[in-house]
Each structure stands twice: as structure tokens, then as C-alpha cells.
Amino acid sequence: xxxxxxxxxxxxxxxxxxxxxxxxxxxxxxxxxxxxxxAKASDATKAVATELAGCxxxxxxxxxxxxxxxxxxxxxxxxxxxxxxxxxxTEPLALHGEYDGxxxxxxxxxxxxxxxxxxxxxxxxxxxxxxxxxxxxRWFFPAKEWxxxxxxxxxxxxxxxxxxxxxxxRRIWYGYGSFADKGHPRGGSTQKDYDAWARHNxxxxxxxxxxxxxxxxxILANKKEFEAHPEYRALTKGQRQGEQLCVSNxxxxxxxxxxxxxxxxxxxxxxMVSLDCSDGDGQCxxxxxxxxxxxxxxxxxxxxxxxxxxxxxxxxxxxxxxxxNQHSEPPDFPLEPNVYVQLTAGFIRGPYTxxxxxxxxxxxxxMMGFYEYFSVWLWxxxxxxxxxxxxxxxxxxxxxRYVKLGATSMDAESGxxxxxxxxxxxxxxxxxxxxxxxxxxxxxxxxxxxxxPAAKAMRQYYERWSPEKQPLMSRGLIGDLFRDLQEASTAAxxxxxxxxxxxxIKHYLRYNHLRWLLDHEKDKEKQKQLTVDILTFAYRTRxxxxxxxxxxxxxxxxxxxxxxNEPSWERNAKEAKPWIADTPVTRDETEKWFNExxxxxxxxPVKELTFDYSNxxxxxxxxxxxxxxxxxxxxxxxxxxxxIKGEPVELQLLVGSIAWYRDRPDAKWSLKDSKQQxxxxxxxxxxxxxxxxxxxxxxxxxxxxxxxxxxxxWQLSAAAGVPIVWMPARGKRIIRLGQMPELxxxxxxxxxxxxxxxxxxxHTIIGPDHKPIREVDANDETxxxxxxxxADGKCWSFSPQSPSQLWLMNAPxxxxxxxxxxxxxxxxxxxxxxxx
Length: 836
What we know:
Elements: H1 3-17, E1 23-27, E2 30-31, E3 35-37, H2 43-60, E4 66-68, E5 75-80, H3 87-90, E6 105-109, E7 113-118, H4 121-134, E8 138-139, E9 147-148, E10 155-157, E11 161-163, E12 169-174, H5 189-200, H6 215-221, H7 223-228, E13 233-236, E14 239-245, H8 250-266, E15 272-274, H9 287-291, H10 295-313, E16 318-325, E17 339-348, H11 354-364, E18 367-373, H12 377-380, H13 392-404, E19 409-414, H14 418-433, H15 439-451, H16 455-464, H17 475-491, H18 496-519, H19 524-540, H20 549-563, H21 587-600, E20 616-618, E21 629-634, E22 638-643, E23 649-655, E24 667-672, E25 678-684, E26 690-695, E27 701-708, E28 714-718, E29 724-726, E30 735-736, E31 743-747, E32 753-760, E33 763-766, E34 772-776, E35 781-786, E36 794-798, E37 803-808, E38 823-825, H22 826-835
Parallel strand pairs: 3-4, 3-5, 5-7, 12-19, 15-16, 16-17, 17-18, 18-19
Antiparallel strand pairs: 1-2, 1-10, 6-7, 6-11, 8-9, 13-14, 20-38, 21-28, 21-30, 22-27, 22-29, 23-26, 23-28, 24-25, 24-27, 31-36, 32-35, 32-37, 33-34, 33-36
Helix pairs in contact: 2-4, 8-10, 13-14, 15-16, 16-17, 17-18, 17-21, 18-19, 18-21, 19-20
């Protein structure tokens, strides 16, 4: 029988089966339709067709033939609209502006064919993987174990949709990059695995943003000229030095513009050339540059000049720049239409907050995007609860806000650390495509498909340490996580593919176990051995992508080399590293490590009480030595202060404790009533000068004072006897400036054991008679202290200490500088009156 006759029979069978279920693709191991591509199909489309055929074969057991057909009248038709013209798709697949439409695709189920058509090859690829996703395939994380390809002996599809991304350039990328192992069986696969994850999940770009630091490249490309003319470099501290440009120099501007034009000539496929300044400070201090105005004026003035030339020579091309560091704010002149700006969510300087900049930049430029920091190794070290990339609520809010502001790009600096950020990366990518996607449905789908019968236990695992819940990362909480995985393993005992994913998470917890031991070890030799243990473990599990191995071998190992005086540990050192061990991790090892974690991390069965902090009243105790409240912080902290008779609130506020940050926006303080209504607000210069605040209030009561210092540091003082308490937030790191004073708090009547979470230095718990009850040297622990008979319903204190976290679990989190200044929830105050 000829191949054409066989195809006719297959098509006839498909038509016979196609009733309410749409078009049947395979049945009982037989492919009922071929995959059809154009004879002029690109290599990219051919590769997608091969991958599509492989997935359909894996799902159904049927071998799908790939054929070339000019009209695509029958079969699974994959390609571009130019390859398979269709008047009905001309409008749906049309460009909306310069770039919106490069990724658009249409899927149409017809009587004899399934159309997977894109405006471009990229759109066609998106159509193919959207089809596979519709059929149940998932690629949650880049490691092969996180790929879901369901077994479906019968494949049918009834799908008709047109889709395009809301954010046109989407990128979640690895700081420190990917790694490759020459000679290893999987050497070089890390980048391929990442690229495959991006392709399968439609993370791509209708245009590519190039807005990173570039002036150093101008210098490098014109090395001889800059050597001959040192005046071309920035003048700083009386010398021509560094990698910033003297942008007031006409010859420098010519070189920069020429470099930009040459870049586009050498890279005709690039939509943009960056002309952002070099990283760091060191901007030119010569008179001519200073006359240009702000650093933003200089950077964007040069970008404007280049953009005009680019528009003439390369219409449609753009010049990119970051809004970052000293050039975070808009210049005082309009930007050329083809200047692309990407505002960073961190490292901003100048008089405006990020929120203010996010609102002002869209009014200044035609095209812009945002640069987020999902994970930075030196900030989160891959440890629970992770960085911004683990906070799903903040990710959703950010993406939705950026889209409303007209953003066309979103870059997220991240890490190859899917153990802590993987779910966030997966969800973020979906939201960047469609900010209105059903957030909860995506989560349900992840847990159901990735973990099957273990979905409930694994959801609980993720929710326990979710940053939205302000987790207290104690040994007890980690103990709960180990037991969640134990429950999940039992539930999925007969599902090898699910157990493989759970093993990856077990390995990630093993990393946290080893890091916990290292972070809490004081002996240097033991620290050294734990460092080797961590690097060995991370190296052996590096292809699971739970930890960011490339960051670890670049940063963690390098820091350890200096700390332990082991120069051979440096990444570029030729000596063999002590952690290089390619022995695969066995199931026995996994279980051994896991059981060690179960033993070490014991749950802390403490019932946490809730208190009504919206109804606070002054509740003084006798004080032998009334003390003034005085403490300093970086970032926002809350204080509750009572006005007994409606008198003004009297405070002293110093902002700008950290001189380096005094060029940031003014500090903002606010005073709110018990209903969170604003009573007063103000701004203070970040000059490090203490100033009195006398704030009028409408009536007697307790008010909440907050200060946003823009990380420049602040100090609050109140006179002795003033009823004022500090109210730390649950799960939030306290960035204190200096040691905290002795802190007094109330232990409710009937309390038999005081429970609190503490992270910080050694301290003493002091009872109501002001005698020590217990010395505490616990760090990152839930502490339990027995309450002596008759010591409940009274005022206790912590000795002066330096907490980075402090949270009372069964007592009000209200801390005064002396007992007479205590402010408590009304119920607690009423309890005291009743007792008295």
C-alpha cells in the first residue's frame, strides 16, 4: 500500500472518530494524522515539529510522521501564516505596533486538520507547546524529572484560540549564568535544559532588551583612542580614571554614537543597542559635565543623541538604558521615541522612591520595562524562605502593576535554584504572558500534576514557608517541612515519577540542613568541613537544579577560599577541588540524609495566640527607674504611642543615620489611629540631625507611628514615662542600628510557659521581680520558658540584646523601655484591671 493511500485511510479514520470530541489525533497506538510543515520551514520549526512528534508519540504510543505539504489541507499543520496563508487568520495574527504580534499564534480545530499557526516561527512554536499543555504536558522545572507527559492512548483535540503575550519581552535569567562540565555525560546540558524550559513555557521575547551597562564597552572598543586621550574618561577625585565617560566631550560623544551604530551593523538581528553607563559610581566631575545637570541628564542625553542617528540609519531600532543607581530619575528633557528605558526595582538613588519613579517614567518615555530581582545569591543564599522569587503574591501584584503602567518588558534576575524559587519562576512566567491568568488554578494544577496523591502534603510543605505567611524559620518549622515530605513520600509510594520529584525536594532540604549547621557553628575547623560538605553535596546534585551551583562555585567557594586560606579552592585555580565527586546520589543516601533531618529538626508544637493590635491602650506598671525609649533601625518599624488626655504626641526623630544614603528621598513618617486612618504625616531630610516632633491628635487614644527611611537609617526617641511600645512584625528581619535597650513586655495571666521565636545574640529573660529567670543562647529557635508560680499577669523583660527577629507567640508583641510605658491590647489591659 502506498504512503498516500495509508494517509487517506488514517484521515478517514480520524473523520469517523471526530464527533463531539473534535479532531482525533491518535487511537490505540496509531497516528491518525501526520504533522505537516512547509517545504520552506525554518530549522526552528523543523525542530519544534520533531519535538511535537516525540511528545505525541510518548503520550499515545503512536508514531507521528512529519511531512511537507504546501497547502496543509489535512493533518496537524505547523508553521507561519506566510507558509500557510489563511484569510480568516490575517486579522487575528496581525501586528499591533512595531513588535506586538511577533509571538501571536492561532490554534484552530477543523474537520480534517488542526492548525498551529504563528505570525512568526516563534508564534508557531508557542502554538505547538500550547497544544501539548492542553493535552496535559507540563514542564514545571528544567530538570527532566519535572516534565509531565501523560499516557493517553486516544488523543483528540477541540481547541480554538488566539493568544499573544501582554508583556512582549519576558526573561527570568540566572545571575552567575549556567554551568557546563566538559567531558561529563550531561556537560553543556544546563543551558539546553533552561532553554527547553523557556521554550516549552513560552518564555520568549517579541523583541530583546539590551539596556545593561555599556560605556565600558565603548572604552574597550576604542582602546587606543582612550589611551591617547585620558581626558575622555571621567574626572573623579582629580584624576581621569574608571570606566565612566566624560560625556561633555564632543569627541567622546562621537565615539559612543559610532560604537552604537557599529554594534547594530554587526548585529542586524538585534532590535536594540544599549548605551547605558558603566556600573557603579565615578561619574565625571569636570565643570562641563556638571553643567549638563544630573547624571540622568548626562546618560539619557547621550542616549538621545545616539537614538536620533539610529532612527535615521536603522528605522525601528532602539537605544536602551537602565533607570538605575545615580540615573534612576528621569532627565529634565523629553526622550527620543526610540529610547527604551528599563527601571530597576533595586539599587535606585536620588530624591524619588521606586513607586514614584514607576509612576513618573511612563510619562517621560514612549517605551519602558522593569527589572526585578527574584533571587540574588548574596541576598538569599538559596536558603528558605528565599528571595522575591518565592513570594507569589508580590510577583502577581508587581506584574499586574507593571502592565497597567504600560510595561513592554520584564527582566527578572534569578538563580538556578528551583528548590526554593521554582514555583515562583513557573507562576511568574505565566503571569508575564497573561497577568489576568487564574492564579489559584495554576497552583492547583501544579500540585495535582507534579505530585498526584501527594498533592495535599506538598501544598502544605510549600505553604508553611511561603513568604506571604511571614514564616519564622526555626528548627521546629523545618522539622514540620521534613514531616510534610515524609507524608508525601508515603502517599506517593507507588508513583516513581512523583517520588523522584520529592527526592529533589528532599535534597533541597538537605542543603538547608547543612547550611543551618554551618550558620550556627562557631568552631572554624568544623565550619571548614561543613563548607566542603555543602559544596560536595551541591556538586553531586547540581543537575537537579535545586541549588544554584554556578553561584556556589563562583561566590561561596571563593569566599571560603579566603576565609580558610585555601587558595586552591578558588574557581580558576588549577588544583583539584575537594568537593569534586561525580558519584550519583543513591536512594539509600537520600533516605539516610532525610532521616538525619527528621531526627535533628524536631517540630515545636506551640499554639500561637492572636491579639487585637487595633485596640491598644496605655497599661503602665510601676517602674523603679523610668527609662526613655531610644532605638535605631534601617527600614520600616512600628511604634504604638498613647495620648492619655488628647495631648500632642511628643517624639524626637533622626533620619539619615547612614551618611552614604543621604542622597535618597526624604524620609516619610505617618501617624494613624486605631482604625488605620491617617492622622498626620510628614517628611524629614536625611541629614542625620535629631528633630523634635509634636504631633496633634484629635482625641485621647493610642496611635501607630511608622517611618520609611529609604534604608538611610533612623532613630526614634521618647521621654521617660511616655506610653510607647515598639511592635516588631512577624517573620520580618529587624535591621537595627545599635543594640536594643532592655525591653519590657507583658506575660498574660494563666500563662504556664512563655513561647517566643528569637534570632540574634545571647540574652537573659528577666522576671517581674527583675531577677534573671533564664540565660538564652538560642538562635533561630522557638524558645520555651517556664513561668514560675505567681509570675504570670505581670511585666517581664529581655536584657539588652541585638535581635534580628523577635516574636512572642503567646504574649502581646509590645515592647517598652520601662514598665510604666507599656501599651497593650485592650483585652490584656482589662485582664489586668480585673485581676487587680
